[in-house]
Design a protein that fits this description.
By secondary structure, the protein is of the alpha/beta class. It has helices spanning 12-23, 39-43, 80-85, 87-108, 144-164, and strands at 3-7, 27-32, 51-55, 70-73, 111-114. Helix 4 runs parallel beside helix 5. The chain is globular, with a radius of gyration of 16 Å. The two termini are 22 Å apart. 42% of the residues are buried.
Length: 166
C-alpha cells in the first residue's frame, strides 16, 4: 500500500485530499497543528483504518518512522484574515516547513508536491502571469508573510531538486 503524508490535513483542501487518497486505498498520514484547520475535518477521516493523524507544526523538525512514497505540502494559512493575525507562523510554514518537508522527502526518497499561489508574483503588473514573469512583490507589506513564504518555498524546491534530485 502506498503511503502519503498530507500536511494541512485539517484544512479545506488538505482534508479533501486525505479523503480522496483514502478512497484510492493509500495509507494516509494527515498532519496539522490546527492553527487554522478544523478538528471536524479530521473527525470525518477517522473512520478509515488506513488513516493516521499527527498533531504537529511542520515548522518544527518532522520525524516519520516508516517509509513514505509521497508528500503533499498544503499546510499554510491561506486567508488574509488568518495570516494577518499570525504573520510569523505563516512565513515559517512557507519557509521552515517547506525546508523540513523537503529534507524528509530526501531522506525517505519520496516525491513531494507543494501548493503554491499566484501571490508569489505580488501585485502583478501583467495578467495573466507567465512562468517567465518575476512579479511585483512588496517584501515588507502586510501580506508579505504569505507571499514571501511561498516564494521561499518555490526557491527551496528548485534548489533541493538541483542539489538533491528531490
Amino acid at each position: 500500500m502506498k503511503k502519503i503524508l498530507i500536511t494541512g490535513a485539517a484544512g479545506f483542501l488538505g482534508s479533501h485530499l486525505c479523503e480522496r487518497f483514502l478512497k484510492e486505498k493509500f495509507y494516509v498520514i494527515g498532519m496539522d497543528n490546527f492553527i487554522t484547520g478544523s478538528l471536524k475535518n479530521i473527525n470525518i477521516l477517522k473512520k478509515y483504518e488506513n488513516f493516521e493523524f499527527i498533531d504537529h507544526d511542520v515548522s518544527e523538525f518532522i520525524q516519520i518512522e516508516d517509509s513514505l512514497d509521497y508528500i503533499l505540502h498544503f499546510a499554510s494559512p491561506a486567508s488574509p484574515i488568518d495570516y494577518l493575525k499570525i504573520p510569523i507562523q505563516t512565513l515559517k510554514v512557507g519557509s521552515l516547513g517547506t525546508h523540513n518537508l523537503l529534507g524528509l522527502a530526501r531522506v525517505k526518497k519520496a516525491r513531494i508536491l507543494i501548493a503554491s499561489t499566484s501571490e508569489v508574483y505580488g501585485d502583478p503588473l501583467v495578467h495573466p502571469q507567465t512562468e517567465s514573469y518575476w512579479g511585483n512583490v512588496n517584501p515588507i507589506g502586510d501580506r508579505s508573510c504569505y507571499d514571501e513564504g511561498k516564494r521561499a518555498a518555490e526557491s527551496l524546491f528548485v534548489d533541493y531538486h538541483k542539489q538533491n534530485n528531490v
